[in-house]
UniProtKB/TrEMBL annotation:
NCBIfam families: myo_inos_iolB. Its EC number is 5.3.1.30. It comes from Erwinia sorbitola. It comes from the Bacteria. This is 5-deoxy-glucuronate isomerase. The gene is iolB. SUPFAM superfamilies: RmlC-like cupins. It is an enzyme of class 5 (isomerase). Gene3D superfamilies: Jelly Rolls (2.60.120.10). GO terms for molecular function: 5-deoxy-D-glucuronate isomerase activity; glucuronate isomerase activity. InterPro entries: Deoxy-glucuronate_isom_IolB, KduI/IolB_isomerase, RmlC-like_jellyroll, RmlC_Cupin_sf. GO terms for biological process: inositol catabolic process. Keywords: Isomerase.
Amino acid sequence: MSLLSKVKQPDAQGRIQHITPESAGWRYVGFDAYQLKKGQTLRLESGSKELCLVLVAGLASVKTRQAEFPHIGKRMSPFERTPPYSVYVPHNEQVEVVAESDLELAVCSAPATEGKLPARLIAPEDVGVEQRGKGNNKRLVHNILPDDKPADSLLVVEVYTDEGNTSSYPSHKHDQEDSPDETYLEETYYHRFNPDRGFAMQRVYTDDRSLDVCMAPYNQDVVTVPRGYHPMSTVAGYDNYYLNVMAGPVRLWKFTWEKDHAWVNSDEYPRKG
């Protein structure tokens, strides 16, 4: 089973990516990406899942049966590096998205365990912004739906990594259930590049190397991470953006570093001289 989902030509709905638990061979995370033309309408049903709709680029009006969020969106490219507008949608809801410009829309999904939350707007000012790392391991993080904000299963974050830098590094994993050190979280990476003809290198591997896959995602490709470590490295000339979706039985991001590379977090890095 491939861990790399190549971007598709838009279907009748404008969908260019479609990841389900069944297609990924796991239990929790779903991910879809759409390229909608101005004036196009997309209708969705959440069913037994909760959704987080992320306006990666463009403007839209979104409404459910219980709430309306008219004229949202601001950035026209993710590489403006401002936090996005997003909409949280609970289970058993109908959603209508009207594109008010050309619109790149990500639909993140995971099981709704409680289903008691209302639909809500996640505005840019609601998004936590942080810088992580140092040296050639720096990245900018937008915490759209972190584990301290209400949801049943979903965790959603976007990350910017400049050309020549690493990200999701030092290598870390979150694939153990009932562990004091980790939570089991499946994860997808939706990649974008500036310029858009770029690519990155991403490796997914386990300690025993029973899983060890290297991939070169291009613009709008998706990497799926069922288990193991999953570092990513950019190449010269191309800045990277990725949108992460995570979910599992416990909505908490706990992970462990790979011991060989954890020193990159210490004062030994960057090396002097």
